[in-house]
């Protein structure tokens, strides 16, 4: 997976790699405390124009606080937030060039769909004809033509979500904040809407910052993902970077499925060798940096091949018994128990019919992977 | 079987309505069509089993209603009651809305206490509480003493036995009926609606006018009716705090019943009062239904 087919952005869209590029938003040593509780802990972050930036983390990690500081509903205890080089602190939320789409949508129940979308425009004293034109444009953008006159309680959840999006985009904000925008939708609708969101983001050229706890959603829509925990940024990278090169076991574990083995690393000719358990062969891997001593070896289940016969051409081969099989239709996850009791998860595509599967429960199998399949992590 | 059970379930409330509302109303209505008589009870005809029901019905007429329409006192009393009820409802709204709003915005752990404080006056007799206002509002009362002590006025204000005292009494007595329904709608209001309004360019004040106020409309309407309906027929407050020129239909009703012992005319006054009240009661019901449909 690369960032190009993950998000609908041009292949060369990577302003964070360009040192000359000025960030649209900059957090400089921002700390936010609520009483004794530190919600955001000395955080630095740059977000660039036209980015679709995802804040990802478990509940209580500070991602919503971060977003509310951008909207102006919270002010940093320490540090500064710059928008387009300008300090945001003295600007009240109603004067900011940001708009927010609320998790509850916060549609005004006494106003029609069209009036909800027009609400922000009317506050700016724009001529009525221009407001009507803009509302029409927004309604067309989110394909709600025949619902313009309805009240929010007369439309479905998915339609309400679009109204909320149209309303927050109507004022053409420099920055759109989306707080768990798809959380209330069912899975199928959520997946469709993710692609719509990306489409709309690309069409309007607005910078999006999305808060989500759904890692799949973050991976799908975002140009970059920030994984947060306890008010700190753990890793900020493209979805592919986060998935393939997590910088810690926390990130590796939070995003997707992973096997984590604890061991000791030592330099070898090809890279390094990790001895991790009595009676098990050492793992040959690329270590990248000069890691040594106690390390964690993280490897994704889909990077491990399961076979009935012992492969000869792989640098790493482990032997075990099939302990459990999770059949998911398109893929199966095999839980393989090694002789030392360690369970390793391996995944393979079900490209044959189920009845022709070559191994089943309690069969002896071989697990194999290349020396570049896993990552070695210090913590 | 199912049918039977359903009937058994809805029967008791209808039975209550029949016994506690419809039957008394029919009795009052019957008296209003009767004639005054120096007897016990003080009206005629009364039901005589020997002569039968048709004889009784044949003696009833609309004489009392015609009398009411001929004497302008009654019309003035109805009109004056309406005026006092409308003004005091409006005043109660002015006092009650900010209280409800402050309660809804108070910290969670304060709300039960505040709610308690609003309901607390109900624990004392209504009569005693209204009577206490005499001590506050009279010329030697606490209010005048205080105002004179701080030098704001040199002569005591005449408040007691005027319409102002009646307004004060009604606002004080019915305030909880205004506060509670408004509080109930404001408390349910999602704070993110306000934030969304501010995010879209409203100041805190304009967000209040454009979002909070329109959304609290059902509570405001409910509160206004809950104050207006009893205030219209109010007797105790104008009797205790109002003056001789405070004309309210409740007082007229009392005088007809107990001073004149003219039960038929008093009943006719009561029937017309009820007819006047039915309109706002129906409107109130409509509002409630609409509110439920909206949710």
Automatic annotation (TrEMBL), chain A:
It is an enzyme of class 7 (translocase). One of its GO terms (cellular component) is ATP-binding cassette (ABC) transporter complex. PANTHER family: PUTRESCINE TRANSPORT ATP-BINDING PROTEIN POTG, SPERMIDINE/PUTRESCINE IMPORT ATP-BINDING PROTEIN POTA. It comes from Halocynthiibacter styelae. The keyword DNA-binding does not apply. Residues 25-255 form the ABC transporter domain. The keyword Cell wall biogenesis/degradation does not apply. PROSITE patterns: ABC_TRANSPORTER_1, ABC_TRANSPORTER_2. This is Spermidine/putrescine import ATP-binding protein PotA. Keywords: ATP-binding, Cell inner membrane, Cell membrane, Membrane, Nucleotide-binding, Translocase, Transport. Part of the ABC transporter complex PotABCD involved in spermidine/putrescine import. Responsible for energy coupling to the transport system. One of its GO terms (molecular function) is ATP hydrolysis activity. NCBIfam families: potA. InterPro entries: AAA+_ATPase, ABC_SmlMolc_Importer, ABC_transporter-like_ATP-bd, ABC_transporter-like_CS, Mo/tungstate-bd_C_term_dom, P-loop_NTPase, PotA-like, Transp-assoc_OB_typ2.
